[in-house]
Amino acid sequence: MKAKGGKQLILLAFVLVGFLSFNSASVEDGQQLANQYCGSCHLTPNPKSLTKYIWQLNVLPIMGRYLGVAYMGYDPYSNLNPQEAALLKEQHLYPDEPVIDEKAWQKLVSYYLDNAPASLPLDSARQERDRSLDQFTVSFVPLGKKIGSSVTAIAYDTAQQQLWVAEPDKLYRWNSKKGLTHNYDLVGTVVDIKFEKNRSLLTDVGTLLPSDLSTGTLFSLANDDLVPMKTQIHRPVYSMITDLNDDGQTEILCANYGHRSGSLSLYTKQKSTDSTYTETILFNSPGAVKFYVKDMNGDNRKDIVALFAQNQESIYIFYQTDNLKFSSKKVLQFEPQYGTSDFILLDYNHDGINDIAVVHGDNADYSYCLKPYHGLHLFLGDKNQAYTDAFFYPIYGATRLQADDFDQDGDIDFAISSFFPELTTLSAESFMYLENRNEKKFRFVAHVARTMVPIKSLTLEKADVDNDGDMDLILGQFAYSPVPVPPALQQAWNSVDYKLVILLNQHTD
């Protein structure tokens, strides 16, 4: 019996070793395929970052179509109008034939489904971390008599000491002493406002909902006269009039977010008297969100630092090498499910070198769930524009970011809005103020505003709106939600009688 049992144990050991070797090889094969096929377009996503359910029903069908595979019956052209469907087919975003064989595709599917968790549980420890927002006083500002709010842009004109606020088909101007001073009717949805000496630049996205049609417009507003500068743009979300080559003639730089396609584009005129602009695409990719114009390498040329979301999820520096000629360098990249939403160039540690703060939290696409990797990341830069991950603060659905020494104690504090917070016990984290208590050790204390109806905002700006010498914060209520919301909460958002939530800084020395 002992001899027989020994043979059985040896056989079992061989079987177990063989199974483990096969399983390990299977995982390696799947990971290699993921790096080969997924990593060719974006950073390869970790299977553990999403649930099996989301991979199976949402993400893998999308992924498959980009490889020419019709998985789970997904049809990217369904529910599109004929014009948009024809445009997508013309662009050949989806291969007509599979670029991966069936066996390899099944290995790729198994790699994600076998290694994904059943759920991503709520981080309950977050319920104990927040303090009251005692440094700021919350003020609610109505603009007009309409109930409900859909604020899409906020900007503060320091010269006129006025806050400009946009909603679909509306534009308001407000002053802390005079209240509402202007109320414009517009045709369009302004999502970005920039001020120049004698005019304002308004960016009309065309449609807030995802679309591959180019219906956006850049407007100039001067003396209440609205003039289109550039039309038929693919969902522009951020623009700037700038003289990149310092020749005395300005250009327009524009982040065309798009949807499945998009671009970072430069619009130029041959002469200042020309009425039309010529487009030069600096980077052909969807998801352009925001940019800075700044000399990043000390060669006395203006460069561009730009954030791209969608499948790119990257920050690039476009170095100006010659007259309006650029070379690109990817300095940061994240997995596509991170939903990168906003970033800021700053000098966090006062060493004279640019650092980058970035928030991840867009949760409206194919992978809606509470994601533990959403939040604020701080990357410290060096003189060669290489960036090291120095600090992470987790915040579900982080969307917009501001940085400043709000309490005037010599270090950088952060303000973050979340459009996709956890809505049961953490709804107050739709706005968070991170007070810097130890700059070198990255110790922050989180403060939230516990309002009667939770703040829900796509916008977050800083300005000294009450002219008392410190920075205040302004959020615009936006009632619509693209993800499931408790009905009572949605009704409350639909019924608010204010459009702005202004956090007035009460800092005292």
Offer a concise description of the structure.
The protein has 5 helices and 29 strands. It has 509 residues and is an alpha+beta fold.
Number of helical segments?
5
Share of helical residues: 10-25%
What does the radius of gyration come to? Answer: 25 Å
Low-confidence stretches: 1-25
Mean pLDDT: 91
Q: In what range is the share of β-strand residues?
A: 35-45%
Largest sheet: 5 strands, mixed
Number of strands: 29
**Biggest sheet, spatial arrangement of strands:** 1-26-25-24-23
How would you sum up the global shape? globular
In terms of structural class, how would the helical and strand content be classed? Answer: alpha+beta
Terminal CA distance: 86 Å
Could you list some keywords that capture this structure?
alpha+beta; five-stranded mixed beta sheet; 5 helices; four-stranded antiparallel beta sheet; globular; 509 residues; disordered N terminus
